Structure formats: C-alpha cells, structure tokens
Amino acid sequence: MKSTFALGAALLLTGFVAQAQEADAPLWEIGLVTGFASTPAYPAANERTQRALALPFLVYRGEVLRTDRDGLSARVLHTSDVELDVGFSAALPSRANDSAARQGMADLGALLEMGPRLKWTLLRPSSDSRLQVQLPLRAVLELKDGISAQGLIFEPELNFEKRNAGAGWSLAASAGVVLGDRKRNDFFYGVAPQYATPLRPAYEAQSGLISSRLSVGTSKHLGSDWRLFGFLRLENYAGSANQGSPLHLQTSAASVGLALAWTLGRSEERARN
After folding, report:
1. Is residue 258 helix, strand or coil?
2. Pairing between strand 252-266 and 28-40?
3. Domain-embedded: residue 272
4. Element (H or E) spanning 264, and its range?
5. Which of 67, 54, 55, 76 is nearest to 25 (CA)?
6. How far is CA 226 from the centre of its chain?
7. pLDDT by residue (tens digit) across 67-78?
8. Is residue 271 part of a domain?
9. pTM of the model
10. 17 neighbors 266 (Cβ within 8 angstroms)
11. Most buried pick, 7, 120, 128, 221, via CB within 10 A?
12. Comparing C-alpha atoms, which of 79, 232, 223, 208 is closest to residue 152?
C-alpha cells in the first residue's frame, strides 16, 4: 500500500500550490516543490508511510481546465457561488508485502478516480475569505491486467479559506467524512478466503463510513518566487462500517506535511476566477 499513499502525500504537498485562492493569480505557474509527509499506510492502518519528496509542479487556472490539490478538473458550470466540475486523480500501484497486515495478499494496481464535484459558497465573511461546501463523488478504476471497477467514494466537506490571516499567512481548514460503497471498502478491508490466516480471518466489507476528517493547511510567501506550505489532518475511524475487519487496526490517526515551493516561471496573463 505504501506507494499508493506516498503518491497521495505528494499530491497533498504539491496541491497546496494550486489550491491557494489568490486575487489576480497567474493563469499558469511552473516550478519545483520539495517537502516531507507522514501519513497512515491506509485508513485505519497501524503502519505509517514517511516520504521526502522533490517534484515538479504545474498549476493551471483556466476557465474550464484547472488543477488543484485533488488533481485535474474540468469546470462544467461556474457562477459566483456555485461551481460544478469533473475531476480526475491517480495513485500508483503498490505491493501487498510492503504492509505487514497485508502480507501474502494480492498486489494492488494503479488507481484512477473520476467523477463530478459540486462546490457551493455559503458565505463570504470578508473580501479575502469564504465558507464552502464541496460534494465530490468519484468512481474508482484499477488498472491491473486490464481495467476493473473498484466502486464509488463520496467525500462531502465543509471548507473555510482565508487569504490574509495575518503576518502574510493564508489559511485553509476543512471538516468532512469519507464514505465508500461495498466494493470500494472491500479494496481496503476485504479479506478473500484464499488470503485468510489464523490471524487474518476472511472478511467481506460493508458499504458506509470510512473515516471522518479535520484538516488545516497554511502557506506563506517567502519572496516573489518562494512559498512555504504545511498541513495537518486528523482522522477518526470510530463508527466506521468495517471496524470488524482484521485490516482495520486503529481508531484514529494524523497526517502531517511541510513543503517549500519554488516558482520558476509564470504567465503574464491573469486567471479569471
């Protein structure tokens, strides 16, 4: 599981570059981001993944095509308060033997997630802040010996963003839940009979809650081309639909990361939000 969630950590780090809601932002930016992230190996795992990362980034803030911390998206509808887009994201394949809990199980293929996301701005407390509901629904495909469907995932969130939180810092905070159908939850928690052991009995996953989340991210400009980012995410797995799985091993976890982005080039043309 490690490479899948290491890529997720990379997207969290690079995504804050694209996610920053700046007034009069460039249409595009390119650069490099380096940082460190520590995350659970998978939701409710008792193992962690730590990765130091150095990656190029490309930010594009087009009227239709855009990038943000969730990946690539295409806007279908955009008004001052409501936005509907279709998003795409991916995760690398991973070896089951990289996780002690999944030793001897089948390896997992590369994943592609795609689907609609509704964003509705509920309130603008000031000219540089907003409170927004996001409702993304994603279909998950696994690319391994062909293409197979791996269910649906729904991640409703309440987000607050403030560009000028004091001393040059910007702030983003969110609270939400992660829900999966039976097939998606089976990807994390199911144990087929052929992979059962005395310590890992067979288990068929149920649809429902995967986790609840509380996240906060912050950023600060360090000159015109440098920006510092950090994030903390707390997850609670109590009450999840698959606490009875032998792969469900924790009731809570935290993810943390710190990154530094260096912008190498940007457009003179400005984005139209």
Report:
1. strand
2. antiparallel
3. no
4. strand 252-266
5. 67
6. 23
7. 866 678 899 999
8. no
9. 0.86
10. no
11. 7
12. 208
User: For 238, phi and psi rounded to 5 degrees?
Assistant: -65, 135
Residue with tokens 């391994």: 144
Of residues 182, 179, 191, the one with CA closest to residue 237: 179
Give the Å distances, CA to CA, from 222 to 35, 69, 106, 168, 256. Answer: 15, 21, 45, 9, 21
Q: Are 15 and 261 in contact (CB under 8 A)?
A: no
CATH of the domain at 255: 2.40.160.40
> What is the model's pLDDT at position 254?
96
Domain assignment of residue 198, given as a range:
2-266
Beta bridge partners of 132: 121, 159
Q: How many residues are listed for the chain in this entry? A: 273
- How does pLDDT run across 218-270, given as a tens digit for each residue? 999 898 899 998 999 999 999 999 999 999 999 999 999 999 999 999 999 98
Q: How far apart are CA 169 and CA 7, in angstroms?
A: 26
Inside any domain, residue 106: yes
Instruction: Specify the number of domains making up the chain.
Output: 1
- Residue with token string 């998978």: 42
Confirm whether 44 is domain-assigned: yes
- At residue 187, the 3 state secondary structure works out as helix
